[in-house]
Each structure stands twice: as structure tokens, then as C-alpha cells.
């Protein structure tokens, strides 16, 4: 299928072509016609599947096709959980709407509000926002929702995780009753379905990935190591493999700061991003990472959500997440757009419960590797048998998985140089016994 077959307007097709895309991803192939039909849409798609273009393109077309009562009055609102994701969505709107006479802007906290007010006063058709800053601006009388036609909730599951449900409900009360609603989430969890019931009307459901699946393009390893030696092992991995770009996840903000400082002192350019960092500091860290000036970016789950880093070769779980689903989101940062990726987890004995929860969720054992000189004094217990806690979602697998984000494709592999497991290692008997291709997941 081509973008032309989806019924997009010539101006949008030109923008898509200028970006170098010719075929829609699976989520785009299903979501774009559904949105263009005017129906409410409930879509489940992991980050990296092209979901942003899946709602941005048809949203732009619907606004362009319907003549506004007043030009440049707010007609579409996109809510996102984080500043980084808001900026990413706003960039997508600008890119695909470049040949249309529509105006857009983005607002989020952590930066001065006056420049955002100035842009709103000049008029916008599309607003991308985080919930808190949106309510602040509305409270100051700077936003009028009376002509709103389309509402998009992007990464709805993360908004619930971050405690935005009350802000979302406050915002919904401010919006016109007659509008099109689009909800995008990584899963159709019960909490999401409960939220959906109160917002969407007879929605079209779109899902392209089995629930909690990990990408086939990401290879995964577990490195058992004592907690106090995790930092030294991470430095060993970065130096031994000459990793020039690695995203590292920690469980806490304090842990992210401490690890980044330790790596910097060891001569490895590192920066931390988390919720306590100013927007300016987060932007500088991310730009430095993308430009190759920052070698190791240390992040918490919330700060990393929505990061768009093309061809990221590897991610490291310095700490395993407390919530197993977050592991899927973390390693989804790599192995995108057809490229291969590596995911390494440094696991101490006290994290065996989290490791077991992750393996039960993804329904496979992750191969263990032991690095010489870092064998743990207290090893991680043997893998528990895999048991399904519940039946798979009836919506899982509606379309073939493997849809990739419409981004830089090709996976040229030059950044993957040296990102294989260490040469100095021995394989545990607790590796993946059921996988014919070893440690691919």
C-alpha cells in the first residue's frame, strides 16, 4: 500500500515524499483511513511504529478540508505526557503541514510562559500541549476551546501512570461536546478502556502489535552483577565496545544524576535527564546526545518517554524497572525503523523478582552472559518457568506486527560497531533454551 492509496491530499503527499517515505507503516495504514472517516479512534501502538504520523497526517487533512468559521482559531488539540514528546509531535505537525495554510504551536511547562502566550495570541489552528501548562494558560484566559473539532490523547497510558487523569478530566469539561476523539496508547489495559468509555463514542479500534511484545530487531541480554559493581561494569562495556551512543535507564532521578557524574569523572561524556531537570538542561542534553557530544545519556522512564533518536544502537537497563511493561518501552528505544538494536540489563540478586516479572510478561527467557571479573558474589536465581498469568487480549495481533516507525531507515549499522556482547564472557546454562536463534527477542 502507498500513501496515495490512503486518500491523502496532494499537499500532504508532497510533504511525505520530501521526508523520503513511500509506504505507510501498519499503524498508519489502519489509523489514517479511520481518522479520515471522522470516527473516534482507539489505537494501540508502541513508540517507534510511526503512530505520530498516523494521527498527524489525517488530522491536518480534516482541518484543511473543512472551512473554519474563523481562521487560526484553535481547532485541534494534542495532549502529551512529557515535554519531549510534545516537542516531537509539534515537529511532526510542522513537517507534514508545511504546504498547508494551518498554524500550530506547542506549549509545555519548565520554560517561560510569556513567549507561548504571544504565539497563542497570533492565532493557531493546532495546539500541542502538556496538561499542566494547558490548564495554566486556560486559567489566564489565553485559550478558547469553543471551536475545537479534534482532540488527540497521545500515550494515554503514560499520562495515567504520571497521574494526569484529574487534569485530563478537567480539560475534557472545558471542551465542546461535539468533537472527534483520537486516543493512542501502548496497550489496551483495563485502565485505558475505562478512560476510553468516558471519552470515545463507538470508536474504531486499531492494534498492530501483540500486547507487550518486544521487537524482533532487538537482541537482549542479562548480565548478573553485584549491585555495588554495576557502575564499573557499565564503564567496562562502554569502553570495551567503544560505544559512542548509549541510552542508560535508572530507576530514580538521584540515581541518574549520580551515575552520570561517575561516568563523567571516568572520562566518558555523560548527561542525565529526568523530571527535576529544567527544560533547557534536558534539551541541551538530548541535543548533545544526538550530535555525538554526549556519549552516555542517563534517563528515568518518564524523561525518556517520547525521545525520538534515530538508529540508537543500544540501551542499557542499569536498574530494572519496577513495572515490567516499562521494560518493553525502554528497549523499544532501539531496533527501530528496520535497524537492529541491543538491550543489556545489569541485574543484581535483589532484582530477581523484577527479572522474573519481565520474562513472564514477554514470554521468553533472556539470555544471561557473565563478564570475566564481574561474576556476582550473590547470583541471580535461575529462571522461573514461563507461565501465562492470563489469556492474551482478544485484540492482540489484529494486524501483523513489525511495523516500523517512519524515520531514517536502512539501519546502516555503523554505529552498532562493537555492540555485541563482550568477548570475555561465558554463557550461563540459564540462557534461552527455546529460541532457535539464540538471544534474539
TrEMBL record:
Q: What Pfam family is a match, any one?
A: Helicase_C
Please state what class of enzyme this protein is: hydrolase
Low complexity bias locations: 430-441
Quote the subcellular location field of this record: Cytoplasm
Enumerate the residue ranges of region (Disordered).
Answer: 375-441
Which Gene Ontology cellular component terms are annotated?
Answer: cytosol
Q: What is this protein called?
A: ATP-dependent RNA helicase RhlE
Q: From which organism does this entry originate? A: Halioglobus maricola
Q: What is the lineage of its organism?
A: Bacteria, Pseudomonadati, Pseudomonadota, Gammaproteobacteria, Cellvibrionales
